[in-house]
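Justification of computing resources. Each target in the renewal requires a structure prediction run like the one illustrated here; the chain below, 104 residues long, is used simply to show the kind of job we budget for.
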Amino acid sequence: MNADEREIFDFLKTIPGNTFASVMEISKKLGHRQRFDIDRTWARPLLRRMELDGVLESNPFGEYRIKGREGEIASFKDALEQPGAALGDTTIITLKDIDKNKQE
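Resulting structure tokens:
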């Protein structure tokens, strides 16, 4: 992986659970602002190459995520600690979360 691909991979790791990220969102968040102003989809060729290499997967809308994260659900406490976690991601409480509280 080159530096841009590593940066994209690291950014996608910060997105919780099974959420996809759009090309525009990735292009805007990464790289220099001038790069985004020149080409709003500069990350598309890199994302496509990473998909062909088997690192990423895409949905029918052209959004991307790290391959194999579809069943990954963060626990309640983990979701609360993640910066920018949506409220819907933090309201899932499993029996496992309750058992941890009794032990502590």
